[in-house]
Amino acid sequence: MGCHVLDGVYWALKIDHPVSIEAEEIREGTAERYPTGSRIRWDIPAREGLPPVKVFWYEGLKKNVAAQAEGSLHAAKGAAQNFPPLLDEIKKKYPEEEFENSGTLYVGDKGIIYTGCYGDSMHVLPWEKMKQIPEPPKVLPRTKNIMIDFLTACREGKTETAAGFDYGARLTEFTLLANLAQFAGVGKKVVWDGPNMKAVGQPELDHLLKYEYRKGWQV
Fold first, then answer.
1. Other beta carbons less than 10 A from residue 58's beta carbon
2. Is the pTM of this model over 0.70?
3. 132 inside domain
4. Could you give the C-alpha distances from 56 to 42, 97, 116, in angstroms and in order?
5. How many domains does the chain have?
């Protein structure tokens, strides 16, 4: 789900490579099994006139809920969900607002923006404040069907789609760095050299970044 939820963050905030990634919290999991809950942080440097920013990812079960909490065999539900504490504060402040189980909060100096899982329902909190803001002009191309858009590009040998292949690759790399931080372990900051695709000073992570393909299958 990372590429869906983090797409807006990566795109709107003009993120390229983070300078570091760190797993602040990991619940359970092994080298072969993903955690049942975690909190990850990306540290983003200043870029294109924008100040440094921190991106946080919350998932799964809360740290201290029972292992048999509701939904723990598939996806956490109810009070067991590992949401940012800020969300609880917002729900109390704006009880009329509706929030999905998977979404994003953009916290700024002048307010907070919320989007749903796929970047939908984007608005400044609360909705009443959003109604006072003029709607921006639509400058991006629209597609009627993203799958047809994708398949047409493949058939015609094009790379120009509603979401470009190059962009998708960079977004996926950004998302997967969270997994790299989980492998490194809680509190073990991964200093990231994006252009060279390398964890600085952590050779034990190299095998996760490069793969020896079988002869004839190299890419």
1. 17
2. yes
3. yes
4. 7, 22, 16
5. 1
